[in-house]
Every structure is written in C-alpha cells, then in structure tokens.
Amino acid sequence: MLVGMDSLNLLRGRPVLRSLWFVFAAVWALCVTATWAGAESQAPSAPSMRIEGLGKGSAPLDGAWQFHLGDNPAWAQPDIDDATGHDGWEQLTADAPWGAKTHPNTEGYGWYRKRIDLTLAPGAPSDVALLIRGIDDVYELYWNGQPVGHLGTFPPRVDFQTAIPAQTYGLGPARSGVLAVRVYKAPFASNDDGTAGGFEGVPIIGSPQAIALVKDSLDYKWLQRQQMRFALTGLYGIVCLLSLFAWMRDRSQRLLLWMAVYALMPTLELLLNGLRLQASFILLTFAMQFAIQLREISQWYVLIYLLQLDDRPRSMQWIKGIAIASLIAGALDGALGFFFGGMAKSTFQITDAFLTALILPGEAFPILLVSLAMMRRRRLDSARWIVASIALLNDVMYAVSNISQQGERFTHWPLAGWLQDAHVTVLGNNIGLQLLLRTALFLAIVYAVLRYAIDYRKRQNALEREYQNAKEVQQVLVPEALPAVPGFNLASAYKPAREVGGDFFQILPMDGGGALVVIGDVSGKGMPAAMTVSLLVGTVRTLAHYTQSPGEILTAMNYRMLNRSAGGFTTCLVVRVDPNGKLTIANAGHLAPYLNGHELAVHGGMPLGLEVTRNYAESTFTLRADEQLTMLTDGVVEARNRQGELYGFDRTAGISTHSADAIANMAREFGQEDDITVLTLSRIAQAEIRDRELTPEELSPSPA
Q: In this structure, what are the phi and psi dihedrals at residue 679, rounded to the nearest 5 degrees?
C-alpha cells in the first residue's frame, strides 16, 4: 500500500506526466459535453410560427398547434416543454374542432399552444390584436402566461355563449411569445354528432384596425346570409299581429289565437338564437327549447281547427294533456344545461335521452292529425287540403331529421347531414329544404286562415241578420204589454239567455171573462226556434176562437207540431182562468205551476211534437182572493252558480210567492244558463173589485 502511494506521488511530481493528466481530463470533458449536445439536438421541439414585417394588415395563425387533452394550469406558461410526443403533447390544426379530427366524442378540457415570432413593419401600430372565430364551448386566452381574455365560465358553474362566432382581444405591444388557449367542451347532448370541441376556425392576428375590419366583414357576410330568414320572420310577425287583433275582436275564434301564437314563435326563436345575443347560452337554450315546443303545439291546434278535428270534446281533452306533457318535457330538457357542472356526464346524457324520447313523438303528431282528417274524408276546401299536404311533407322531414340525429355520434347515420346540407344559394342566402317547406307551409296556412276568416265573417253576418230577424219576430210574439183581465192582476218577466230565446207566452182574454194563459219552451235557439214559436202562437190564437179547453188546445198544438219540429220538442202549459177563480190546467211536459208557494199536482203529458197524443188530461183548482199562481220555465230551476250548483226546485218554491220580476232577477243573479220566463196571476179581493165597480159576474163567489 505504501509503495503504491509513493509511485503515484512520484508520477504527479514529474512535469511530463502532469501534462498528460490534464490533457486526458480535457478530452474526457469534451466528450461528455458533445454527448449532451447530441442528445439535446435529437429531442423534438415545438415549432415556432414566424410572421415577418406585419404592417397594418393581419395574418392567420394556421398550421400546426400543440395540443393536449386534460387540464394543467402550468400549460399556460411559455417555458414548458410542449414538444410533440413529450408528455402527451401532439399537433392539431385550428381549422376544425378536435372532434372532427383525431378525438371524436371527446368532452372536457383541452389546451392549444402556439409559439409566435412576430416582427412589425416600419410605421405599423405598436399593439397587436387577436380574433377568435369560435371555440366549443368555454375558453381562456393566455399570452406569455398572462390572461388576456375569456368567454364563458368553467366548471363547476359552466356557462358559455356559442351564439357569438367571433371575438377580438388585445395582446398589447408584445412581439414574440406563446399563445395558449384553455378549452372546456361541455357534455354532448343526444343529438350531437361528436365532432365538436375546440377551435371552429383559424384565429387571426394583426393590427387592431385590421382585426376590426375582419370582424366587420364576417358580421356583414353573416347578415347577408340571414336576409331570407329575417324577411320570413318579418312576415310571421305581421301575421301574428293581424291574427291577434282579429282574435281580440272575436274571442270565440280559437284558430286565430293559435295562428297568432304559431306566427309569434319564429320571431321569438330569431330573438333567442338568431341575433347573437351576448347572453347565457344555457338560459337561451332553456327559453329556445320552450319556444320550439310551443311552436309545435300551436301548429297542432292550427291544423286541428283548419281540418275541423275539434268536434270531439274527449279527443280535445287528450290533445290538451299531450300538449301540456310535451311542453313540460321540453322545458325540462332545456333546463338540463343548468346542471352541466353538477351532474355526472352519464347521468346528464341518460336524462337528456329520456326527455328527448318523450319529445320526439310529438314532432310526428301533425302526421297523425292529417292522416285522421283523410280517414274521416272531411269535405274541406282546396286551401285546407293544401295546408294538410304541405304540413305532412314538412313534418315528415322535420321528424326524420331530428330522429336520425339522435345518437348520431354512435350510429354515424349521414341522413340528418344530407337533409341539412341540401340547399340552394340565392343572393348569398343558403335556402335549405327545411326552410323551403316551412315557408310553403306558412304561406299555405296564411292563405287558408284568410279564407277561413272571410268565410267566417260572411257566416257571422248571415247569422246576425238571422238573429235580428228572429228577434223582431219574437218581439211580436212575446207581448211587452199584458192585456187587462177583469178581477185579476197579471205580471210577466222575460229574460232571454241570448239575443233570441225559445220561451214564449200568451194571455188571451175570453169573451165571458177570464183568460187563457199559455206558457212554453221550444228546444233550440235562433231563427228555427223563433219560427216554431210563431207556429205555436198562431195555432193557439186560432184555436182560442173554437175551444177554451186546455186539453183540446194542447192536443191540436201537438198535431200541428208533429213532423215539423226537426227532431226537437216543446213543453207547454195551458191554464184557463174563469172569472170565479176556477183554474183548469193541462200540461205537456212543462214545469207544474205554484199556488201560494206550493207546487200543484197537475196531470202530466208528453211534450209537443214527439208522438201522437189523443188527449191531454185536465186538472182543476181554485184561485181564491189574494192568492197567487206562478208559472215559469225551466230557466229558473236550472240556473247554476260558479260552483256548479243548481238553483233547484226547493229554492224555486221558496221564491214563487215573489213578484215576476223578483223571481227572474234572483234566478239570473244566481247564474243564468237558459231563458227565464215568469208569469204571475193573482185574484183581486172583493173590496178592490167593488171599488172598481165591476160587473155582477165578476163579483160571483168562486165555488169551493
């Protein structure tokens, strides 16, 4: 061991050997340095984009960008190693989303990075601006590690504004650096094809003035492509206002109301989805989905009323239930966006698919309505059948397009894309097949509704003339002034439910004193009822010259009514009042009269006009002094309040001793639904008769 140390010391002490030792160390250091340099030269490096001599113009940031799925805040920094192949980095171009390239059906986070070496031309503005055409869905921009702008909010409270296709941001006076873009793609909906995510177009860098000009140019081209849509929406708006005003004049015309709603929806859709509002995409989607469902439902009802399918109340109730369910499902589907950040992706997509499955059948509902109208073979005019045919074509295409879109990222069916891409270009406007069909359907509906409104106005005018004629006839047949009957007080009250009613009454004084009192109710309304009343009144007045028997009068009236009532009938009560107070009553299905608040037990009979009746039985009673006989129609008994409660026989009996006007007014205030007619007859006391110096016949006592 001592020998070795001595030998080494001996060698170090010699000048020549000492020189060799230093040479050997230097050669070894050079070899190591060369090896490291070679290794570094073989490692991949991220490309850098050179933009030289940029003046007042702009340049696209095309070519390859460094791309990485996932999220790491450090990726915003300019000095990280983002070389292709290192730590998961790859290259993508920005001319299309990542879903359309190498990462289909990919949601969540992703980062883009691009190194830029920029030199400006003499006289160029010192500041640099950036234009982003569009990014799915939320993004943040970093220039040399510093945030310079964003659009939307990241999880857990996700929101974005994809309706805005281009945004500009200032990068300041920087000349070279790294542009990093952090992106979040929201979960796919049931009708997404899986091609979205990230850049939708190549960003552009340049002077602020040049970037502003590029944005103005993009906006102008967008406006030019929307001319057809704006024009059609303007027509919809005009039709909406006209239909609404027409409906307000006549609230019974539900077709006009639903036409107003149907014409309003395109305007609402344009406001929500066509004007690039800088508002929450999630909120707009919720409102848009609700508007779409309301548009579909209003189209159902327009077709229902145009095709005259509203004649079955039970079917209309079912349609109402389906419409409400469809509206609720659409609102829930639109509200799913509020849960982007707080709901698991699988739960979100399963819920979306379930709600969509509830909505889709409703889109095919017009096909069912048109088919139903064809099966019933309705006698409709040509305008309505044109509407039905175009609605069928439009809805078949709409339903097929929407159904084929569902799950498209898994099925890869190209049908929806073919239908959406089929278009013609007119003056820079892309007019697709769906837009053409909707325009044709709109014009057909407007034409049909206009025809309907004109025909309805004609029918209304004719009906108003008919009502006026019937009213004039009824004013002649229902006496306003009652004739005087010595020894008796008579009063009447007549309250028709509509302009023309079916009630009638007559008071015919007899030659020997007393009178014939007739009260009745004709089924039906309007001119037919008025004509029936005129026939009956004429018959009664003729018969009164030949007989004063109530039973014989009803028998003759029934004979005249047979085969002339068109399936209807008439109830009638005839009362002969003798001067001595004797009452002879015959009844043909009418309400029995009340005497001093008690219903009289009169013999009943069949209403007039239903079957041959040889005779009507008569009942006799006595009306004493100060007693009141009350006769009325069923409008009093059948009055109904808002709770659906009938006035009824008990209440009627309780008020039967009141005056005619009081009885009619109480029933009317309770809730009139039918014509109300009340007649009261009371016998005057002997003292009143003597004061009036009546004849001895009037003073004769009435038999018990």
A: -120, 135
Helix 208-225 / helix 227-249 crossing angle, nearest 10 deg: 50
Q: How many Cα neighbours within 13 Å face the side chain of 331?
A: 7
246, containing H or E segment: helix 227-249
How many domains does the chain divide into?
Answer: 4
Same domain, 217 and 230: no
Judge if 232 and 381 occupy the same domain.
yes
Please determine, for residue 47, whether its predicted confidence score (pLDDT) is greater than 90.
no
Q: Tell me what the mean pLDDT of segment 97-116 comes to.
A: 93
Is there a single domain that holds both residue 202 and residue 232? Answer: no
Q: Indicate if 662 and 534 belong to the same structural domain.
A: yes
DSSP-assigned letter for residue 565: S
**3-state SS track over 589-657:** ECCCCEECCEECCCCCCCCECCCCCCCCCEEEEECCECCEEEEECHHHHCCECCCCCECHHHHHHHHCC
Question: Do both 638 and 601 map to the same domain?
Answer: yes
Helix axes 382-405, 345-363, angle to 10 degrees: 160
Asked if residues 233 and 267 have their Cβ atoms less than 8 Å apart, the reply is: yes
Of 516, 644, 502, give the one whose Cα is nearest residue 576: 516
| Residue 502: domain span | 481-699
* Tally of CB atoms within 10 A around 182: 22
Reference 152, options 170, 130, 167; nearest CA is: 167
The tens digit of pLDDT for each residue in 315-325 reads 889 989 989 98
CATH number assigned to the domain comprising residue 146: 2.60.120.260
Q: In which residue are the tokens 């007019």 written?
A: 431
Torsion sign across C-alpha atoms 449, 454, 459, 465:
positive
My answer on whether 188 and 246 are in the same domain is no
pLDDT 10s digits, 567-577: 688 999 999 99
Tokens of 459: 């029918």
Q: Is residue 470 domain-resident?
A: no
680: β partners = 491, 630
Residue 406: closest CA among 351, 360, 339: 360
Q: How large is the C-alpha radius of gyration of the chain? A: 46
Asked whether the predicted pLDDT for residue 66 surpasses 70, the reply is yes
Give the residue from 548, 556, 538, 476 showing the smallest Cα distance to 509.
548
